[in-house]
Amino acid sequence: MTMRFLFYDRVTKIEKGKRIVGVKSLSSSEAFLEKHFTKVALIPGTLLIEAMAQMLGWLVAYSHDFRLAAIMTLLGDVRIPPALKPGVKLDIEGALVTNTERDSMGRATVSLDGEVIAQVDRLIFIHFPVPTPDALLKRFIYYGGIEDLAALEQKP
After folding, report:
1. Residue 107, CB half-sphere, CA atoms under 13 Å: how many?
2. Which has the higher per-residue pLDDT, 73 or 6?
3. How many angstroms separate the CA atoms of 73 and 62, rounded?
4. 36 among known catalytic residues
C-alpha cells in the first residue's frame, strides 16, 4: 500500500511572508487508522502538529519564491485535543512571526467549526537552498490542490 504523508488536503489562501490557510477532512478510512485504534478510531494529535508544520513549511518556501525549503527543528507551547474522532473537516492556519534567509519562526492553529482545537505557538524552521525552484513550485501547486495560484493570493 502506498501512503501519502500529507496532512492537509488543500491550500485555500496564502499571503507571502505572512500567513497560509488550508483544510483537512479526516475520515475513518484514513490509512493511518488501519492498524491502530482498532476499538475506537482516534486521530493522533501528532498528526495535527504535522499538518501545521507542513502548511508553515510551504509558506516559508512560497515566501522565498521556492528558492528555499524548510525543515522544522523545534516546536514549543503545543496544545492538542485528547480525543478527536474521524468524520470532521479541519481548518489549518499558520502565520510567520519571523522569516530570514537562514531560518523562520511561526505559529499555527487547527480549528473545528470555528473553535481552535490545536495550537502550536512556536515552530522553528531552518532553511536550505533548493536546486530547482520550479520543481518545488509545481509540487506546491499539485499537493496544495491549487488551480489558480494568482487567485489564491488575491483572496480577501
Report:
1. 10
2. 73
3. 19
4. yes
DSSP 39-54: SS--B-HHHHHHHHHH
Supply the pTM of this predicted model.
Answer: 0.91
* Cell numbers placing 32: 493511518
Of 18, 36, 67, 102, the active-site residue reads: 36
Sign of CA dihedral 131, 137, 118, 9: negative
Model confidence over 41-81: pLDDT tens digits? Answer: 777 888 899 999 999 999 999 999 999 999 999 999 999 98
Q: Which amino acid is at 53?
A: A
**Contact between residue 106 and residue 94 where contact means Cβ atoms under 8 Å apart:** yes
Which amino acid does the sequence have at 83? A
